[in-house]
Specification:
The protein is mainly alpha-helical. The protein has a single domain, classed as Hypothetical protein af1432. Helix content is 47%, strand content 9%. A two-stranded antiparallel ribbon has the order 1-2. It is globular, with a radius of gyration of 21 Å. The termini are far apart.
Length: 345
């Protein structure tokens, strides 16, 4: 006979298999008394807003240079969520010392996990390229679009969450959507009134080493087949804590931070800013505005005057129709020794 307590540990939790973190736990709904259904992380993951990230490649045009880099922002968002939860459990004791009135550990853990899961939800086709070549004309980026999606479309779900993978929120606690929107943005939005304990958590998604970049450095290097040297995630987390100065690293963790920053720099110079990747970006820039203006208008995905309507981004992925137009063309201006490489025609 299986003890009830042992069996209960596995209820409401499922696992994603992941090549970087091995297994990523996430909450799934449990039946409540009277047949009521609770809100869980699975509801966010299964939403159209997060599922559409499956169709947005993490590395934009670099995937045409590195054949293995076919991973999406969906996979990265799950990984960032996992790392953010680990940050929460590591930092909570020092946060409690600084701010005794801060919420419970499950509250902080779930707040950081949802912020990381949704941090890329505002990305359009081709990720940052879409920011620079489409959203920029409205004076916004994907984070502003993501903030609107979180507040308008996830607000009720966020308020309904009552537990993290490691425990239930304290009685009377409810997650606040604007806290999630605050944490997921790299810049600190001016004029926003938030508790001081929340400001201490801001660097988890917008600091030197974060749940975001710790996952993408590990994931991008693995998927590209690039040897960047060790990234000691365990040591970095172990020696991290919060102080009056914010996110602080014990001197014993400085070596791990140095290795991570070196690995990140290598990715920027050899993958993100690879000469061929940048050349493809320049060529895409020539055709992107007109091409996507037609596609977006035909599919009712184009923005109205002012802020683009998030609803019209639900089905906007990187566009296989554009990828299929990649062909080798002798007139490509950046071929090595006169030899052409793939160009868009």
């Amino acid at each position: 006979m299986v003890p009830q307590g042992a069996q209960a540990r596995y209820e409401g939790i499922a696992l994603f298999a992941d090549p970087i973190h091995e297994y990523i736990p996430f909450t799934v709904p449990c039946e409540r008394e009277g047949g009521a259904r609770e809100v869980a992380e699975k509801d966010f993951i299964d939403s159209p807003w997060v599922q559409r990230l499956r169709y947005i490649y993490q590395l934009q045009s670099a995937r045409w240079v590195f054949p293995g880099a076919e991973h999406s922002r969906f996979q990265h968002s799950l990984g960032a969520m996992h790392v953010a939860g680990r940050f929460a459990r590591q930092l909570y004791p020092s946060l409690r010392e600084l701010e005794p009135a801060c919420p419970s550990l499950p509250y902080v853990e779930e707040l950081l996990r949802l912020s990381a899961l949704l941090h890329d939800v505002g990305h359009g086709p081709f990720g940052h390229f879409f920011d620079e070549n489409h959203l920029a004309q409205y004076g916004i980026g994907h984070e502003e679009v993501g903030e609107r999606i979180i507040l308008e479309h996830f607000g009720e779900l966020i308020r309904g969450v009552r537990r993290s993978p490691h425990g239930a929120l304290a009685a009377g606690e409810a997650l606040e959507p604007r806290y999630v929107a605050y944490l997921m943005q790299k810049k600190d939005p001016g004029g926003v009134q938030v508790p001081r304990w929340l400001r201490y958590l801001k660097p988890v998604l917008s600091g030197i080493y974060t749940a975001d970049n710790l996952d993408y450095v590990l994931r991008d290097s693995y998927m590209c087949g690039i040897a960047v040297g060790p990234v000691d995630l365990e040591r970095l987390l172990h020696y991290s804590f919060l102080s009056q100065q914010g996110l602080t690293l014990h001197r014993a963790g400085v070596g791990a931070l140095t290795m991570f920053l070196t690995a990140r720099l290598y990715l920027y110079t050899h993958v993100y800013f690879h000469r061929t990747t940048r050349a493809i970006d320049l060529h895409l820039r020539e055709i992107f505005p007109g091409h996507h203006a037609v596609r977006l208008s035909r599919q009712s995905l184009g923005p109205p005057p002012g802020l683009p309507a998030p609803d019209r981004l639900v089905f906007a992925g990187d566009g296989a129709h554009l990828g299929r137009r990649i062909r080798c063309r002798p007139s490509a201006p950046w071929g090595k020794n006169g030899q052409p490489f793939c160009a868009v025609r």
